[in-house]
């Protein structure tokens, strides 16, 4: 009878330990899924941020190009008269 009681106690302890381990496993799986979801969200946010920054770069490049064209055209309007003034005489030139 003592031997049967000992087996029953051991089986009961193993059952309890198994239950604890089972719960820990489920909690670990949930935590893992939460971490994966969080990392996926972060990845998507960073992808969106990269897209926005690339759009900003394109806009700035276009603005730079437009400004460079304006400067070239404005500078050209000064250079052409200046060249003709050099040929004629510098004292008669007005800019």
Structural account:
There is one protein chain. With 95 residues, the protein is an all-alpha fold. It has one domain. The chain contains 1 helix and no strands. The radius of gyration is 40 Å and the shape is rod-shaped. 0% of the residues are buried.
Cα(first) to Cα(last) distance is 119 Å
Radius of gyration computed on alpha carbons: 40 Å
Fraction of residues in helix: over 70%
Summing up helix and strand content along with how strands pair, one would put the structural category as: mainly alpha
Oligomer state of the chains in this structure = single chain
What is the percentage of strand-forming residues?
under 5%
What's the overall average pLDDT, rounded? 87
Number of domains: 1
Low-confidence stretches: none
Provide key terms for this protein:
mainly alpha, 92% helix
Structure described in brief:
The protein is mostly helical and 95 residues long.
List the helices and strands and how they pair.
Elements lengths: L1 H87 L7
